[in-house]
Every structure is written in C-alpha cells, then in structure tokens.
Design a protein that fits this description.
Chain A is α+β, with helices and mostly antiparallel strands. Chain A is about 20% helix and about 30% strand. Chain A has two domains: about 190 residues, Cathepsin D, subunit A, domain 1, CATH 2.40.70; about 80 residues, Pdz3 Domain, CATH 2.30.42. In chain A, the strands form two sheets. Chain A has a six-stranded mixed β-barrel. In chain A, strands 11, 12, 13, 14, 15 and 16 form a six-stranded antiparallel sheet that branches. Chain B has about 290 residues and is of the alpha+beta class. Chain B starts with a helix and ends in a 6-residue tail after the last strand.
C-alpha cells in the first residue's frame, strides 16, 4: 500500500494540524456573493442515511454530492472530474472550480476542490448501497459559507449565505511524517474490499423510476357520494383521442369503481405511457365503454 | 461446503458494508429513536467549537457525567460513543460483550444528553472505538468521545451557523429509519431494482423530452403544450427549454415528473425556461386531473 498517497478526509484533517500556520485564502473574489440570501435546497436521504444534494460544476451536471460536515473541503470524484474536464491547477494539490451551482439557486465561484476518489464513496458506490451514485463531497469549506437548516420533515434544506469565507485546509504534502495511522490505513482498504465483494455478489441496482402515463382529463371533485365529472378534455390528449367529452361522468377506470379524485389517481397510479386503460363513462343517460392509451406528459 | 461459502460471503459483505459506513465517519447499527422529547419547545441554542481539523465539537454531559467532547457530523449516518465514554457515563456496563472489530459493543442509549441549555433524552448510540476518532484525538492531544450523526439530527430541525459557531435544535416529529435493520436484507436479498412511479400532483398539459447534450444541457426541451391547458395559460411554448420547476432542476424527463409531483392542483408555482437564450420565469397553476 502506498503510504505516501494522500487519503481523503482524516488525512487532510490531520494534515491541517501541521505546525505551520495555514495561509488565509486569497480567493475571495466571489462575484455577487448572494450574502443574506436564502435558498431552498432539495435533498434526498439515501438508504444509508446520507444527505445528497445536486450540484453543477462549471455548468455541467447534475451530480450528487454528499453534505458532510465531517469532511474538511470539497471533493470531486475522479470520474466526475473527468466528465466535466476538471484538473488540478498546475503544480497544485487543488483544482479550481470556477463555478459551483447548487440546486435551489445558491452559487459559489472560484472554489478550491480536491480531485480524488474519496475512499468511503468507493465502497458505498461499489455496493450500490445509497440507492444513488455519489459523485463527490461537500465539506467544511463549502458548507461553512452558509447557515444550514436541516429539517427532516421537509424535502428541502434552507441554506442562507453568510458573509464568511473559510480558509482552505493546508495541503497534506506539507505535513512531515509518512502517512496516516495504521488503523486509518486499514480502513482505507475497506473501499477495495467492498468493491471486491460487489464484484462477487453483484451491485445493488439503482431505483427504477417511471413517469406515470398522461390522460389529459381535467376532473372535478364530486360532492359526497357523487360521481367524478370531466370538466375539460385537453386538446390532442389521449382522452380526447378516445372520445371522452366534457360533462362525462366517470364510473369505472382501469377495472375499479371510482367515486373521488383520489380513487381515480389510485386506480391509474401504476399506469405507464402506452398502457391501455378501460374507462366506463356515463353521458346523459347512456353508459359507454371507452379504451384509452396513456400518453407521455403530465 | 456451499453453505459455508455463502456464509463467508455474507461475512465479507457485512464487513465491507460496515467499513463503507465507517469510512464516512461512523460505524454500523444505528438504533431507532423513540423521540421522548418535550415537543413544542422552541429552538435551543448550543455553542460549538471548531477544531483545527474543521470539525464541530460540542462539550456535553452524558447521564450527568462529563464533560465529553462529541463531534457533530452531518455526514455520519449514526451516533457513536467510545467504550471509555460509554463506561464513564454509565451508558454500558463493564461486562458488556465486545466484538473483535473496532471493539463494537452494539446499540445502547444515553438517557440524558446535556449541552448548552439543551437536554436530549434517550439518545440512541452505537458503542465502538472508531479508529478515526482515536487518531484525531491523538493528533489533537485531547480525547474525542464520540460522533453525533444522522440518528440525532433526524429528531430536530437543526440549524448550523459556522460564523456564529452555534447550532440550534428544535424537536420535530419524525421517524428515524433503522439503517442496519434494512441494510443486510438489501445486501443479501435479490438484485431487483425497486421501482417507483413519478406522479404529477396536478394536470399541466405539458410534455418534455430528454435533453440531447447530456451533462451540458441546462434542462429539458418542451415538445408539446396542450391548447388552453394550465401550461399554455402560463405561457409555456414548444421549443422552450424547461430548466426549473418549483425550485427543482429539470435535467431529465424523470426529474421533471418528480418535481411536478410536489405541486398539488390549484397551487401556483414558478417554472423557469430558456427561450431564445433568455431566462423567463412563469407561473403555472396546475388543474385537478390526470
């Protein structure tokens, strides 16, 4: 194992304990710094209880980044860096991200990041554990620029830009000594172990997502005990093609009796585009059986 | 023979899995929170200290003993306490069994965790000696007694202000997922992708397609807008590139449907489109329907 190889996180963290006092960041030329602005940042919680938010790097993306106050800086996985053409500055430990956009509207510019495969991500991504790929880590030097509000009952975090520019961590190479402690090196090996295990048993697949099919029916919630009425049929929609007309009452949909908007949504909850759906309607005193082919859209 | 192969595979997996979690800052086996807190109390402020390693540390009392210094790590999936601190605080008993790996002693609970003016009750912890914590403590010349992770944060609306060096916690009703109960099953179970339908909250009369230029694409091109639909009334046009819906990026068809899922019928929301290179913000009010 290459003991000189700098490792993420702890090693960096330890490195910053080096006696030489770290130089203050000179990269404060953050234009339009959005100080005082608040952003609603959508996040997802992975199966492993990690917070992921989406970013664009120099306008490219989106990528899933881990929100991790335990990491000292910004880490961009090598594969992610390759995709966006991000390379370390000449002769430097750091790469400069000209522009880092966060879903929700926050933006940072001229941010230093480290291109590296964080060993914890190697393990998690290999097994497919988080249910999503993780493309990098947002650590202290990013997060400290915001006041962060995490509310587990909401699907968004609130980030408020502070008038605060944290220092970059010191480059680990400056630290005298030969590498991280043995125990940490042992932990570093677990990434490859996970990768090996994943090769043997297969990776956990990512979640499959399917948009529901489109009908083009505008519906009115009936009074208690009533029947759902079509108020509008959108032009060119599958419902229009099937011959549904405004004023029609919907009796049955996809083999279910439907007496509310909720029941209608439940009846078609699993319908995908191109699926055929039977529909019983009442028009005047007549009952008609129609067949609709769900479309794409919403 | 076959059976033992399977068993050892499972062991490797479990270790690897434990490892990958550990690497992000903590260990396996979080417990479920039972959230016995007093609800309805306002936010409580807790000052923290920044270590030179850029970690937040809070001085706490555990079950009336202490002080204990705990790292607050939003990236850690669980909350853990060292063996020493667990013994000193009465969280575990001296004769609790150990496993060989990182001296894990399993799940326990801190009855009372005090920090600043705040008291948290029945905090689930994993008792283990995390090598990272030990190494950091040695470098800093001060002991670090544990890591507060997701299982703690999930019980509160948490605000972190690095500038003021304070955190605030306000209890919320939220069920904390038991990570380790689900995870081994997922690992040992069949490799079947879970599937999830993306269902728009309301009717828009809009269709978009996948962007052509991948990572460089700002959003999804609009391919149809039904006449007189909510989308048409908002001013959306075929050829517009939809970049944001209800504050969420729309970088794929799935993204777009997922974002629309959060907007119920009758609620106005904003969308952002690119038209002729200019950004336009429009307001859409989806109708009830399918």
């Amino acid at each position: 194992m290459n003991r000189r190889l700098p490792h993420l996180g702890l090693f960096l963290a330890l490195a910053s304990l080096a006696p030489s006092s770290p130089p203050a960041s000179d990269a404060n030329q953050d234009q339009g710094r959005q100080v005082g602005q608040s952003f609603q940042v959508p996040y997802r919680l992975t199966d492993t209880n990690h917070f992921l938010v989406r970013v664009r790097i120099n306008g490219k993306g989106p990528f899933n980044f881990l929100v991790d106050t335990g990491a000292p800086a910004l880490y961009v996985a090598t594969e992610t860096a390759r995709k966006v053409g991000l390379k370390p500055d000449k002769g430097s430990f750091w790469a400069t991200v000209d522009r880092l956009d966060f879903e929700g509207g926050a933006r940072l510019s001229k941010i230093k990041g480290r291109v590296e495969d964080p060993f914890q991500l190697v393990g998690m991504n290999a097994l497919g554990l988080p249910g999503a790929s993780i493309d990098g880590i947002l650590g202290f030097t990013i997060l400290a620029r915001f006041r962060l509000e995490l509310d587990p009952t909401r699907d968004r975090m609130t980030w408020t830009r502070l008038d605060y520019e944290p220092r970059d961590p010191v480059v680990p190479d400056r630290r005298p000594g030969e590498g991280p402690p043995a125990e940490v090196q042992a932990m570093n090996m677990l990434g490859p172990v996970a990768k090996f295990a994943a090769a043997l048993v297969g990776k956990q697949p990512e979640e499959e997502l399917h948009p529901r099919g489109y009908f083009g029916l505008e519906l009115e919630e009936p009074a208690e005990g009533g029947v759902v009425r079509v108020t509008r049929v959108l032009a060119g929609s599958p419902a229009a093609d099937a011959g549904v007309k405004p004023g029609d009452q919907i009796l049955r949909l996809h083999d279910r009796t439907v007496k509310s908007l909720k029941a209608i949504r439940e009846a078609v909850a699993e319908v995908k585009p191109k699926d055929r759906v039977d529909l019983s309607i009442k028009r005047g005193s007549e009952t008609q059986e129609l067949t609709l082919t769900a479309g794409e859209g919403f | 023979m076959r059976r033992s192969t399977l068993l050892s595979l499972r062991l490797v997996l479990t270790l690897a899995c434990a490892g990958s979690l550990l690497l992000v800052g903590t260990g396996p086996v979080p417990a479920e929170a039972d959230g016995n807190e007093k609800k309805g109390t306002g936010p409580q402020t807790v000052p923290f200290e920044m270590l030179v390693t850029n970690h937040m540390v809070v001085r706490t009392k555990l079950n009336g003993h202490g002080p204990f210094d705990l790292i607050f790590d939003v990236g850690a999936p669980i909350t853990l306490l060292t063996n020493k601190a667990s013994l000193k605080s009465g969280t575990i008993k001296e004769d609790a069994p150990r496993s060989f790996l990182f001296s894990v002693r399993g799940e326990s609970e801190v009855e009372k965790l005090e920090m600043g003016d705040m008291t948290a009750k029945d905090v689930p912890v994993i008792v283990m000696d995390h090598p990272l914590l030990k190494a950091m403590g040695e470098m800093l010349g001060r002991p670090l007694d544990g890591i507060i992770g997701y299982t703690f944060f999930a019980r509160y609306r948490t605000t972190i202000d690095y500038q003021a060096k304070t955190m605030t916690f306000e209890p919320v009703e939220h069920t904390v997922r038991n990570l380790m109960k689900d995870l081994p099953d997922r690992l040992a179970g069949p490799r079947v992708a879970r599937h999830r339908m993306l269902v728009s909250g309301g009717l828009w009369g809009l269709n978009v397609e996948e962007p052509a230029d991948g990572l460089n694409s700002p959003g999804v091109p609009i391919v149809s807008v039904a006449a007189e639909s909510p989308a048409a009334e908002a001013g959306l046009k075929v050829g517009d590139v939809l970049t944001t819906l209800d504050g969420r990026w729309t970088t794929s068809v799935n993204d777009t449907h997922a974002a629309a899922a959060g907007v119920p019928p009758g609620r106005e929301t904003t969308v952002i489109v690119l038209r002729d290179g200019k950004e336009l913000t429009l307001t859409v009010k989806p109708a009830g329907g399918i």
